[in-house]
Design brief:
Elements (H helix, E strand, L loop, with lengths): L6 E2 L22 E4 L2 H12 L7 E5 L4 H8 L3 E5 L20 E5 L8 H9 L4 E5 L7 H4 L5 E5 L10 E4 L15 H17 L6 H16 L8 H6 L5 H19 L7 E3 L13 E5 L2 H13 L2 E2 L16 H9 E4 L7 H15 L19
Parallel strand pairs: 1-11, 3-4, 3-5, 5-6, 6-7
Antiparallel strand pairs: 2-8, 7-8, 9-10, 10-12
The chain binds pyridoxal-5'-phosphate (PLP).
């Protein structure tokens, strides 16, 4: 069978991922395992807001609006400005009162957490929840001093569902009360089928894509659910440390291969990071929404599925922060995670440089303003 080449989109599954001898990560203890990050946060908000008026949750203006919409079901959302182009949040825009909740996000796994630790010390009466989804094993996550922290696992690990919730301060945690979501099993089926597809089996892409989409939709509704038995059985046995260092090396390689080779129409959002951090993927910032869309389509044509983290302003919930909106229209996540070899990464780099090589295609005007938020 001839294997198929593509990068990005959802993880595939094979039992070969589970090896007898792997260096296992030391995860925080104790923790609760939920179906999703949403389920973890919603359960926490419900546990600690019992009998109280609707809680207020402060959310960064640059965030996943689908997830924020779920939070809105149980809390009033208040936006504060936090952008991945800046090293720290705009704390002046964060006006949290005692007893209110604040969501602090480690965007793309790039932050160190010291700014939040300082802020937290000065606001001990605020309930901080750190979101470590983009790098669950960062130094920040492992050395956190926040009241609560969580990480959705399926964004960095080949799992159909799952999120860990822990309290670095050893505060009581809510257990998952809801049932396992059937969505996890749709997603697991999709992951198994995707592996067969990648290996060249005669499986139609729509077959696993439909299962992925339906599974994800169901999972999004599991608002206090437990992780599936599958995830519960395997998550600690995945070589997560190997995955993490591979991811770090791949992002580094991709960014190094692009240095000086993509032009002012598009720049990496970052090209270095602190010790103890492992970036989520390679993130690009295009000079305009039109260039982002052209680039995304170019990559799709060549089987590279680049995601957008995150869209807003398309009619759903919106932070109304002009800087966050602007970023959300120009940002692109290029896959460079643990699944890929150096050759795969080189191929993606080549596709990107080909797109931006002079005369390759007419890029939409107007020409980019060099000061427009590129870092
Ligand atoms: C940074 C971040 N936090 C939280 C979530 C929510 O996790 P889940 O989809 O497991 O509910 C996501 C998912 O998109 C995310 O990307």
């Amino acid at each position: 069978m001839k294997s198929r080449w593509e990068t990005g989109s959802e993880f595939d599954w094979s039992e070969n991922l589970l090896k007898p001898e792997v260096a296992l990560a030391v995860w925080p203890k104790p923790l609760e395992l939920f179906a999703s990050g949403r389920a973890a946060v919603l359960s926490l908000l419900r546990l600690l807001s019992q009998g109280a008026p609707r809680p207020r949750l402060h959310v960064p203006s640059f965030f996943c609006m689908e997830v924020a919409t779920c939070f809105k079901a149980v809390a009033d959302i208040v936006w504060y400005r936090d952008l991945p182009t800046e090293p720290v949040p705009d704390f002046a825009s964060l006006q949290a009162r005692p007893g209110e909740w604040v969501l602090a996000v480690n965007f793309f796994g790039l932050r160190t957490g010291s700014a939040w630790q300082d802020w937290c010390q000065r606001h001990d009466d605020v309930r901080l929840i750190e979101d470590h989804t983009h790098d669950p094993l960062s130094d920040w996550a492992m050395q956190s001093t926040a009241p609560y922290a969580f990480a959705s696992l399926r964004k960095t690990l080949p799992l159909p569902d799952g999120a860990i919730l822990w309290s670095p301060r050893q505060l009581p945690l809510p257990p998952p009360l809801g049932p396992v979501s059937l969505g996890a099993y749709y997603k697991l089926s999709a992951m198994i089928l995707k592996r067969a597809y990648l290996q060249g089996a005669g499986i139609a892409k729509e077959d696993f894509r439909t299962l992925q989409v339906q599974g994800e939709e169901m999972l999004g509704q599991a608002d206090d659910g437990a992780a599936s038995d599958f995830t519960r059985a395997v998550w600690r046995h995945l070589p997560v440390l190997e995955f993490r260092s591979r991811r770090q090396a791949n992002v580094q390689l991709l960014l190094a291969s692009l240095a000086g080779r993509i032009n002012s129409f598009c720049q990496p959002l970052f090209s270095s990071w602190s010790r103890g951090a492992a970036p989520f993927q390679a993130i690009l910032l295009c000079a305009s929404p039109e260039i982002r869309e052209q680039l995304r389509q170019h990559l799709i044509q060549h089987h590279v599925y680049a995601a957008v983290h995150w869209r807003q302003g398309d009619g759903g919930l919106c932070s109304e922060d002009p800087a966050a909106l602007d970023l959300s229209r120009r940002i692109l996540t290029v896959p460079a995670d643990h699944r890929y070899s150096s050759e795969d990464v080189a191929r993606v780099a080549q596709l990107l440089t080909a797109f931006f090589s002079p005369g390759a295609r007419p890029l939409p005007s107007p020409a980019p303003d060099p000061d427009r938020g590129l870092v």
